[in-house]
Amino acid sequence: MEIKEAIGKAKSEAKKRKFTQSVDLFINFKSIDMAKQDNKLNIELVLPKGRGKKKKVCVIAEAELASNAKGVADKILMAAELEKMGGDKKAIKALAESYDFFIAQASLMPVVGKYLGQVLGPRGKMPKPVPPNANLEPLVAKLSNTIIIKTKGKNLPVAHVPIGTEAMSDDDLTENAQTVINAVKAKLPLHEQNIKDIYVKTTMGPVVTVDIGGEQK
After folding, report:
1. Helices then strands (H, E): number in the chain?
2. Do residues 157 and 181 both lie within one domain?
3. Relative to the CA of 161, which of 67, 92, 144, 209 has its CA 20 to 30 Å away?
4. Rg of the chain taking only CA atoms, in angstroms
């Protein structure tokens, strides 16, 4: 079945839960060595129809930027607080796990790198640097609809990304899914020929296979 039909089936067959489930897209690859650096995917993509739920953003700032972040960021971490956190790895890991995205005043990036780099870096959460007078509202809105498409080595030749939630319409989820697939195909050496399978599922629902040939006509 094509993407829209597969999404509808994944949603309809998922048992109702006490929370709104994500709808996830899985792309399996073939004829490509994902252990090679040139073949690894690391794509930052804004979903055209959004993610369907708010993402948590932490802003690391001082003075004017900290003021601009009020009412926009979920957390404002002042430079002095960051330095106090210092080598407290437990606190830094808790911070990294509590927020989806980080934004930092450009002048504070050396301090951020010093105290948070070893934790945020491997998680792909290093902050976006911005000037001290930046308007954060549009950036936070953009980040809330952003996903990261990554692959992890030859033993895991797959990309797994959220394309929205079960509360979104099939049409919106389909547009998001197709945007992801197109972005991935564009980065592969043989494009669609490097794609083995595509699946969709809700967080706790059954896996539904997408008909690649039908979708790519």
Report:
1. 8, 10
2. yes
3. 92
4. 19
Total structural domains in the chain? 2
**CA dist list (Å): 16 to 28, 173, 202, 203:** 27, 18, 11, 11
Band of pLDDT at residue 179, cut at 50, 70 and 90? very high
- In whole angstroms, what is the distance from residue 7 CA to residue 20 CA? 15
Looking at the structure, tell me whether residues 160 and 128 fall in a common domain. no
Which of 128, 143, 158 marks a domain boundary? 143
Task: Retrieve residue 66's tokens.
Answer: 């900290």
- Domain holding 128, by residue range, is 57-143
Strand partners, 22: 165
pTM of the predicted model as reported, rounded to 2 decimal places = 0.84
Q: Which residue type, as a one-letter code, is found at position 72?
A: V
Measured between alpha carbons, how far is 53 from 69 in angstroms, rounded to an integer? 20
Question: Where do we find the tokens 């790519």?
Answer: 216
pLDDT in tens, 79-137: 889 888 877 889 999 999 999 999 999 999 999 999 999 999 988 899 999 999 999 99
